[in-house]
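Here is the promised in-class demo. Please do not try to memorize the tokens; focus on the logic of going from shape to residues.
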């Protein structure tokens, strides 16, 4: 998580709420009830709706859900919830309320980036470009030959998803944030780090656009790959590029392979190093989509 955001939220959380709910959040078990993960209502358009859903949660039904999932042994992080469901849920609501109150001003910046990603997904959906979008969604996911491979195996009873719709959930909680849920009967949802998060979280120079402007290169390629093309005139190595993007080398390599497959970059050996350079096609695309655009007047 971006350090500024993490520190802001940590300072705001009440100590008593952190003591009760903190062990659950620190658990190595990646499972969490949808209401606590705040993804119970995937159609919610505001945090207030999710907070209301949390307030209406029956603590005893929540404890029963946890008990059913932890059928063999209960991890230490969940014992406070099972021992005192109502007290745990009250503390968790205080934690969420305090965290959101502190984070809301920062979220206004992240919301702009998520809005762009929503537009990108919409364009891909109506133009038949979903295959390309899913291929470059996240380095931890693999989409090949019509098959989406998740980073962790699903339980055997969830491997046949039927014709469930896929819900994409851009996450602004960190550069490597990712999560997914296949246990619902109505959807398969996948959360992945929203492209361009570094622009609003202090990772790179802010390329955010002013009102009425559009980062056309980022809209077409996604913010990470757009930034790669912009940086190629420096002829970086993959390690140089990873440091610039503040991502792992494997992530940078993955995006470079996709750009190379599209004919937008190529590799050249310089002594013991392999440098990345733009192709003519990559340079032309970058120049075309970064030129000032004057809308036609009617």
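The designed amino acids, position by position:
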């Amino acid at each position: 998580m971006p350090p500024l955001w993490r520190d802001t939220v940590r300072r705001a959380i009440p100590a008593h709420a952190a003591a009760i709910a903190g062990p659950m959040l620190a658990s190595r078990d990646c499972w969490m009830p949808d209401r606590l993960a705040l993804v119970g209502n995937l159609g919610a358009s505001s945090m207030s709706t999710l907070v209301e859903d949390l307030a209406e949660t029956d603590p005893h039904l929540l404890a029963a859900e946890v008990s059913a999932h932890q059928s063999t042994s209960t991890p230490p992080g969940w014992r406070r919830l099972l021992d005192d469901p109502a007290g745990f849920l009250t503390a968790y609501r205080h934690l969420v309320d305090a965290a959101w109150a502190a984070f809301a001003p920062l979220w206004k910046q992240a919301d702009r980036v998520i809005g762009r990603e929503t537009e990108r997904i919409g364009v891909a959906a109506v133009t038949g470009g979903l295959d390309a979008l899913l291929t470059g969604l996240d380095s931890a996911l693999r989409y090949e030959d019509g098959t989406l491979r998740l980073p962790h195996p699903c339980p055997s009873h969830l491997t046949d998803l039927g014709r469930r719709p896929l819900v994409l959930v851009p996450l602004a909680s960190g550069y490597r944030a990712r999560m997914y849920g296949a246990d619902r009967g109505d959807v398969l949802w996948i959360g992945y780090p929203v492209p361009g998060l570094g622009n609003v979280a202090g990772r790179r120079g802010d390329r955010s656009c002013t009102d009425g402007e559009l980062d056309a290169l980022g809209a077409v390629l996604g913010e990470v790959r757009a930034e790669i093309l912009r940086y190629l005139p420096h002829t970086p190595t993959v390690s140089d590029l990873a440091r610039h993007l503040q991502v792992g080398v494997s992530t940078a390599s993955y995006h470079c392979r996709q750009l190379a497959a599209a004919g937008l970059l190529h590799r050249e050996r310089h002594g013991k190093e392999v440098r990345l350079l733009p192709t003519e096609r990559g340079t032309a695309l970058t120049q075309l989509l970064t030129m000032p655009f004057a809308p036609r007047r009617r």
